[in-house]
Amino acid sequence: MNEYLKNRLSRIHDDLYLSLIVIDYALSNDQISIGLAHELSRLLTQMDRGSHLKQDLKEAEAEAYRLADEGGLIHE
Asked: What share of the chain has pLDDT > 70, as a percent?
């Protein structure tokens, strides 16, 4: 794995980790707070326009295929 792919995967990890923290918090509490509502709104906004997650996933996928092809691996 090269540095480019490691960097993309790290960014994907961070985006997903922060999202899961908010979702876990929401599921573990019986009451909804204004702070939680704001965090859920922020996640939605980030996913709609401000997130690099989709692009990072596409780039990581393409790089993984490229590296697999370089290594002579067969993929479907």
From this structure: 89
**How far is C-alpha 18 from the geometric centre of its chain's CA atoms?**
9
**Domain tally, the chain:** 1
Which two three-digit tokens encode residue 63? 């790089």
Which structural domain range is residue 27 located in? 3-71
User: 76 in a domain, yes or no?
Assistant: no
DSSP 48: I
Residue that the structure tokens 């709104």 belong to: 41
pTM for this prediction? 0.67
**How far apart are alpha carbons 57 and 21 in whole angstroms?**
20
CA 15 from chain centre, in angstroms, equals 4
DSSP 71: T
26 within domain boundaries: yes
